[in-house]
Amino acid sequence: MTLATGIVALALCLGCGILSANAEYYQKDYYSEYNCNEPLLEHAKLTATSQLRERGPENARLNEHRTAREHRIGMAVRHVRWAFDLASWRPTLTDLLLATACIQPEEKLRLAKFVFRDDFNASLIGRLLMRRFVHVATGLEYDKIEFDRDLKGKPFLKNQGFEVEFNVSHQGRYSVLAGLVVEKDCALKPTIGVDVMKIEYGGGKPLGEFFRLMNRNFSEDEWVYIKGQCEEQEQLEAFMRNWCLKESYVKNVGVGITVDLRKVSFAIGSKELHTKRVVCDSKLRLNDELLKDWRFEESLIDKDHCVAVALKNIPAEEDLTGNFFETVSFAELVEGHKPLLAIDENYCEDIINKEYKKMK
Ligand SMILES: *[C@@H]1O[C@H](CO)[C@@H](O)[C@H](O)[C@H]1NC(C)=O
Ligand SMILES: *[C@@H]1O[C@H](CO)[C@@H](O)[C@H](O)[C@H]1NC(C)=O
Ligand SMILES: CC(=O)N[C@H]1CO[C@H](CO)[C@@H](O)[C@@H]1O
């Protein structure tokens, strides 16, 4: 793919978040459940540096840690931030049979329409993340959990009496979920949007030229910050971080709104992002006005993936710095599940025959 097509794809995908869904992209390129949660910049790169590091021992450590944390939040879950590492997932046929029996029938049909296995994987895991989140947050049994979609296709929990907000995103090697439990007596309902970005540019052309093509997507202040970084790598990181923030905001607000991206202007706070700590000091100015009821969490999942969570109506005094993303394993995702559907070998065979994206 040339850089030019890459940028068009990128712009289109941003378009579906910001400027109403682009039907052509949606249908022709590949069937996508989450439109904009699908890889954005993945299309803008020509080469892929494969970093399929195996993370055995590290994973085990993370899991222990997460279990402890889940135990802690088990009493009163407020925030959940989970990341699933798709690249190191090596499901057996049994895993796949189980996973596809644990999602709602209409979602199973939806998933089958993906052309590429990568998208199928990411979206299947997205569904499992949602189910686990609701199970942990509400105590509902897995076979009682029911999701529906609103007119824009955004999923919500159908069960009455439980107020949860969540959003899913996938790019690079991760599927992520950010969720929160809405307190019963809160006056202004909080909302959430999440975006994960792989920090990578393999566009071939000089970075400066890429920036020039993206010119209209950032405000002058944002460009001052991005281009003010010394090294190219730092500029790229600043660019991705800014982009990730914008996407998280747009995902929170919802698809279908029309915004001039230059008017959604972020002032980056702390220069460094971390894996085990969240920074919340980037500020958003919309049409030159500082938005006070918004808060943004930023962190790294690993050194190549940044993630941003946009929160509206979260009290300013609420401490969000512990809300970094924790890795969940497949075993954790399906633990305690009660399959909703019969095991379907034909279905899984079709899935296994799906091809992978070429650019990998
Ligand atoms: C996707 O899932 C298949 C099984 O369905 C697995 O073999 C493969 O490793 C996964 N690949 C990616 C990129 O997630
Ligand atoms: C996340 O938010 C976007 C934008 O509102 C929406 O299109 C998408 O369906 C949401 N996904 C989930 C899993 O909530
Ligand atoms: C959504 C959006 O404004 N995208 C723009 C990003 O920048 C490119 C190049 O300037 C435009 O073509 C896109 O429309």
In short:
A hairpin with a 2-residue loop joins strand 10 and strand 11 (305-312). Helix content is 36%, strand content 18%. The protein has helices at 3-18, 23-29, 56-73, 93-101, 105-112, 117-138, 207-213, 220-227, 232-253, 330-334, 345-352, and strands at residues 79-85, 147-149, 155-157, 164-171, 174-181, 191-198, 264-267, 283-286, 289-290, 294-302, 305-312, 326-327.
Overview of the molecule:
The chain is 36% helix and 18% strand. It has 360 residues and is an alpha+beta fold. β8 (283-286) and β9 form a beta hairpin. α5 (105-112) packs antiparallel against α6 and α8 (220-227) runs antiparallel to α9 (232-253). The longest helix has 22 residues, at 117-138. The model is unreliable at 1-74 (pLDDT under 50). The structure holds 2-acetamido-2-deoxy-beta-D-glucopyranose (NAG) (3 copies). One 2-acetamido-2-deoxy-beta-D-glucopyranose is lined by residues 86-87, 89-91, 96, 117-118, 121, 351.
Helix/strand layout:
Blueprint: H1 3-18, H2 23-29, H3 56-73, E1 79-85, H4 93-101, H5 105-112, H6 117-138, E2 147-149, E3 155-157, E4 164-171, E5 174-181, E6 191-198, H7 207-213, H8 220-227, H9 232-253, E7 264-267, E8 283-286, E9 289-290, E10 294-302, E11 305-312, E12 326-327, H10 330-334, H11 345-352
Parallel strand pairs: 1-12
Antiparallel strand pairs: 1-5, 2-3, 4-5, 6-11, 7-8, 8-9, 10-11
Helix pairs in contact: 5-6, 8-9
The protein binds 2-acetamido-2-deoxy-beta-D-glucopyranose (NAG) (3 copies).
